[in-house]
Structure formats: C-alpha cells, structure tokens
C-alpha cells in the first residue's frame, strides 16, 4: 500500500508497506516472504496471526547521487509501519523549502536513525531548526534512558555476556533511577543517589535476614546484597556510556558525573590457600576465609585422582594444569591442539550468555595465547583422541562433528554448566574444601608458583591482561606456598633426631 504526499515531497521520498513471513518452501528451503499463502485469508484480507509488516522507503539521494532504498520490518500492524513512513515523509517535506543541502542532511539523519535504532525526531522540531539555520539536524539532547538505549544499540561488536551484563545494568538500576534526567542535566548527586539506594537496599535485606519473624526472613531467602565490586561494575557501565556521549559532537556533553562519584574500591578478593588450619576451621564453622580459595597442590592432586575416568576429565585436567577458563576449555577445538609441538592455542571460547551458550572470541586480547603442554597433559589429550574416536564409531550417522576436544556422546558441544556440575560432584566425593570451578584454574597458578615460576610467567599462562591482576590475586598465596616449599625441602634432608641449636655461650 502506498500513501501519497504532496508532489514536491514525492520527488524526494516515496514509500510502501508490505507483509511477509519467514516460512520456507518445503523443497527449495528458500523463504517464501511475501508469497506465503498463509499471509491472507480466503476472503483476501490480511491474516492477523501470520507474518509481520515491513516498509520500503526511498530516501533523498546520497551526496554522490546514489539512491537510498531502506527496508525495515517486524511491525505487528500495517498502521505501525505506515506511521514510520508518514513521519519520514513529513521530515522530508520540512526540508524541501530549504533546498538540496537540507534534503541531503535530512536523508542522512533518517538513515542514521534507522541504522542505530534511535527514534526519528519530530518534524516540527526539525522545521524549527531549519528555519533557525541550524546545520546539525536532530540535535536534541536525549534523556539518560534514550542515550543508554542508543549507546547499547551502537555497540554491535560486544561479546554476548558483556552485552547481557550492560543490558541488565540498564534495566535494573540505571534506567529506573536515572533514565528520566536529560543527559546534560545529570549530576554527581543524581548518580550518588542511585548508589545510596543500592546501599539502603542492602541494609533492608540484612535487617530482614536478622528479623525474628520467619516470614520476613523467608521473604529475602536467596536475595543477594550488592557488594562494592558489583556497584563498581554498574558505575563502569554508566561511565562508558557517558564517555561515548562526550565523544559525540552532536550532543555537546563535556562532563561525566559517573567518574566523580566516590565508591568503595571493590577490589578483587585475595586468593587464600586451603591450609590445614583453614580447613579445620571451615569444618567447624562452615565459613570460608575468602570468596576466592585455592587448593594446595596436594588437594589438586586428590581432586584429579577422583576425576580420572570421568567423561570430562580432559577439560578438568586442562583447567587445573594449564589454567584454561571454563569457556576456553569447552570451546577448545582439535585444530588448535598441536600434540607434536606439545602446545595449544586459545582462539575461541564457548560461553554462557544467560543460559544459552555460544561460541565467541576469548575474553580479552591477552586471553588469545599459546600454552605449552607438559608430557602428562599430552598423554591425557592423546587418550581423549582415542576415546572420542570410539564415541564417533558408536554414534555412527548420529555423530555431530564440531571438532571439539570434549563433547557430548553424540559429538555436540558440552554445555559449560554441565562441566561446573560435574566439578562440584567430584570435589564433594573427594571430601575437599569448597572452591569454584574458576578457582580450579588457580590450581595451575599454585603449581607454577610452588615450582618457583615468577608472576610474569603465571600471567601469560592464565591470559591476564595485566600483571597487576595476577599480583593482586596471588599476593597472599605466594608466601604460604614459599613456606610449604621450604618445609618440604627441609624434610628431604635425613636427620637422626630433632635439630637443636648449640647452647648459648
């Protein structure tokens, strides 16, 4: 359907709406699009249950004379698609009296908004700007909520997990508490108020947990407080979005209030070793000395002894010995494994985005790395090759080839959460003190530190982007390992009895 506008506008803009769906031809598997017979009822009217509406618009030509045909879809009704066309036509109509430069600018503006997903400006606003001689059309300062949506839409190359994290920050706190402020009116006090609200929420949760009323305690069961590190992540999201606004010349934003809010540092917790004294205290009280606990080399060995023979053993071995992240292990393909040269290369990761896992690039530039393998790990990988070949033969035509080192029985990728579940079952069976699967990765670091490796070598093994991260994590582990190593070295020397100092002169 085409809606006509005045003849002058029609020279520079035209548009139409149409309906299509994603059904495929049963033989060719090509999409039927607008030819699907389900799109219309028997009486010739459009079906409201099948397909969605699209528009096609011919915008004013580009500066080089090339036509700009743009299509967008997903509208529930024809009216919604037509409304967008009408607004475009009104914008072009507002630019007509001002000549070719204005038409080019309005075409660029519409094109930009279609690409970023930002709403189109009001025609009356554009008419006022053109009458005032404004060159930067659509230069209206957005609200914080509008800018956050624009900023996130423009970040097309984000990893799935990062985008999910940004989206949740915006949805849960940034938009509800700050979204109504105009971007250039946002202050340090506004942002600080949001973090005060987070702290008040924490106080309410803690008070409810301490209540004498069982119903009140039940109401906050499973509800987590927000730590300093979490608040820092919210601040980092807002700061990144506001820095992008500062870089946008159309907005004329010069100040980032998120950078000036005072928060607790939220430093990463120090890793502590599960020494016998700490294990004894944990058994007595059930309390962990730190959120990040690290097994001793002896405890790592006990875990791997219990894990041997498990279908996922090769991945647990790689994490414990060579420090792979969970996603790096689950996504490791055979073509990145060189058993002859005894090395693997980390080029991809299979990570959870929400619950759904997906393949992507490693966590950071430093995460893409080559890792040397010890002889024991080479043997484990060779054994896994043989085991996988047996699985492939058993599955026959049902085998789904993905080229991964460890898979399900049919060759499909292993969901990372299943590896986590297996890890905890094995650790409980071995009667080991609690650590997370991610902390098993610290086992590789403790083994290297115990063997005398310096922090730079450990940083490269784990793929940390900075040695400062490695140092912050293992500052407390290194002295304890050094003490254990010294005691182990001293115990090797045979003595007839307890060594005593000579009497004082």
In words, what does this structure look like?
This protein has 505 residues and is an alpha+beta fold. The protein contains 19 helices and eleven strands. The chain has helices spanning 7-12, 78-95, 100-116, 123-131, 144-154, 160-178, 188-209, 214-219, 228-247, 276-285, 297-307, 313-322, 326-330, 375-395, 416-429, 437-450, 455-462, 467-474, 477-492, and strands spanning 14-24, 31-33, 52-59, 68-75, 272-273, 293-294, 337-338, 343-345, 349-353, 356-360, 370-372. A four-stranded antiparallel beta sheet has the order 2-1-3-4. The chain has a three-stranded antiparallel beta sheet with strand order 7-8-11, with no helix packed on it. Helix 12 (313-322) packs antiparallel against helix 14, helix 16 packs antiparallel against helix 17 and helix 17 (455-462) packs across helix 18 (467-474). The longest helix is centred in the middle third of the chain and has 22 residues, at 188-209. Mean pLDDT is 83; it is low at 1-10.
């Amino acid at each position: 359907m085409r809606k006509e506008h005045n003849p002058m506008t029609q020279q520079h803009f035209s548009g139409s709406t149409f309906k299509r769906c994603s059904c495929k031809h049963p033989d060719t598997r090509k999409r039927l699009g607008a030819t699907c017979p389900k799109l219309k009822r028997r009486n010739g009217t459009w079906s409201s249950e099948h397909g969605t509406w699209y528009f096609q618009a011919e915008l004013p030509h580009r500066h080089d004379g090339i036509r700009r045909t743009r299509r967008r879809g997903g509208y529930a009704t024809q009216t919604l698609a037509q409304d967008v066309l009408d607004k475009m036509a009104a914008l072009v109509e507002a630019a007509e009296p001002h000549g070719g430069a204005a038409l080019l600018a309005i075409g660029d503006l519409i094109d930009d908004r279609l690409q970023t997903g930002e709403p189109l400006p009001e025609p009356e606003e554009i008419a006022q700007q053109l009458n005032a001689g404004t060159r930067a059309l659509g230069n209206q300062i957005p609200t914080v909520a509008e800018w956050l949506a624009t900023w996130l839409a423009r970040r097309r190359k984000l990893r799935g997990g990062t985008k999910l994290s940004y989206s949740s920050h915006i949805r849960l706190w940034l938009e509800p508490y700050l979204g109504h402020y105009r971007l250039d009116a946002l202050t340090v006090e506004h942002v600080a108020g949001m973090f005060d609200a987070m702290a008040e929420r924490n106080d309410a949760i803690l008070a409810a947990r301490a209540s004498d009323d069982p119903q009140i305690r039940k109401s906050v069961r499973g509800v987590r407080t927000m730590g300093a590190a979490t608040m820092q992540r919210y601040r980092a999201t807002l700061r990144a979005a506001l820095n992008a606004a500062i870089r946008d010349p159309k907005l004329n934003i010069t100040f980032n209030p998120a950078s000036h809010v005072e928060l607790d540092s939220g430093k990463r917790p120090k890793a502590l070793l599960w020494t016998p004294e700490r294990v004894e205290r944990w058994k007595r009280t059930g309390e962990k000395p730190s959120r990040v606990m690290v097994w001793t080399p002896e405890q790592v060995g006990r875990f791997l002894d219990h894990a041997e023979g498990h279908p996922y053993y090769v991945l647990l071995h790689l994490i414990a010995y060579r420090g792979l992240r969970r996603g790096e292990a689950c996504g490791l393909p055979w073509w990145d494994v060189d058993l002859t040269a005894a090395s693997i290369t980390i080029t991809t990761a299979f990570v959870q985005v929400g619950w759904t896992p997906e393949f992507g690039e490693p966590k950071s530039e430093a995460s893409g790395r080559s890792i040397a393998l010890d002889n024991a790990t080479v043997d484990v990988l060779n054994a896994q090759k043989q085991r996988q070949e047996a699985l492939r033969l058993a599955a026959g035509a049902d085998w789904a080839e993905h080229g991964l080192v460890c898979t399900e029985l049919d060759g499909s990728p292993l969901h990372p959460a299943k590896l986590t579940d297996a890890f905890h079952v094995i650790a409980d069976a071995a009667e080991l003190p609690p650590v997370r699967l991610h902390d098993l990765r610290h086992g590789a670091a403790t083994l290297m530190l115990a063997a005398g490796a310096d922090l730079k070598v450990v940083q490269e093994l784990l793929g940390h982007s900075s040695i400062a991260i490695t140092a912050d994590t293992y500052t407390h582990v290194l002295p304890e390992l050094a003490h254990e190593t010294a005691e182990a070295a001293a115990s090797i020397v045979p003595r007839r009895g307890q060594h005593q100092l000579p009497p004082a002169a």
